[in-house]
Amino acid sequence: MDTLKRKLIIISFLLMTSVILYSQNDEAIIEAFSNSYTHEYAGDYAKAIEFMKRVNSDNSYEVNLRLGWLTYMSGLFTESITFYQKAITIMPFSIEAKLGYVYPAAALGNWEQVIKQYNDILRIDSKNSTANYRLGLIYYGREDYTTALRFFEQVVNLYPFDYNSTLYYAWTNLKLAKTREAKVLFNKVLMMQPNDSSALEGLSLIR
Fold it and tell me: Are 186 and 199 in contact (CB under 8 A)?
């Protein structure tokens, strides 16, 4: 057998071996995900985590994302942040990983990290409604109504007939003494939810 043919046989063997190993690894990961879902639905988060950790890898976005969620649901907030951060490091433009990160960060009261994640999302997608709305809520809660207005306005421009964002937009305008705008918005809320108590309260403060 000449040298070239021998090399081709060796290369073919190595390729076949790597495909088989990759396929086996894929099957193990899929099975781990399947088992983790089964135990999550049963409320056994510890077992669900155990199955995912068996196939865990610092290079797997999907596994780290899944572990971030499961550890959050288990109340392991610091560990959850670590897994979500790994997922973000692997896929820096992933919005879902950043949205996941904010849950354990908020649970720990780390609001500056929450704000950072939302701002990172807006740098990727300036019109992301979830990030805009939640930042609006944060600044509204801090009574920074000028900043809150900017975020709620973005959401309402995208979803003009959305109940929650329109209601908060109305209240933010009222807090800033923009009574004409607030009145229009509270009336729009009543189109969505007739007899809405919050909108009626807002209107009573204007009249």
Answer: yes
Confidence of residue 207 (pLDDT cuts 50, 70, 90): confident
Q: Which of 125, 144, 178 is the last residue of a domain?
A: 125
The letter for the amino acid at 17 is T
Q: How many domains does the chain have?
A: 2
Q: Are residues 15 and 106 in the same domain?
A: yes
8 A C-beta contact, residue 129 and residue 153: no
Verify that 111 and 135 share a domain, yes or no. no
Cα–Cα distance, 47 to 126 (Å, whole number): 38
Q: Of 43, 41, 42, 65, nearest to 52 (Cα)?
A: 65
Are 103 and 79 within 8 A, CB to CB?
Answer: no
Let me know: does 165 contact 175? Beta carbons within 8 Å.
no
- Rounded CA separation 207/197 (Å): 15
User: For 17-69, how does the pLDDT look when each residue is reduced to its tens digit (9 = 90+)?
Assistant: 334 334 447 888 999 999 999 999 999 999 999 999 999 888 899 999 999 99
Confidence at residue 93, expressed as pLDDT on a 0 to 100 scale: 96
Q: Give the pLDDT of residue 5.
A: 58
Angle at 60 between CA 105 and CA 97, to 5 degrees: 30
C-alpha 31/C-alpha 20 separation (Å) is 16
Which of the 8 DSSP states describes residue 196?
-
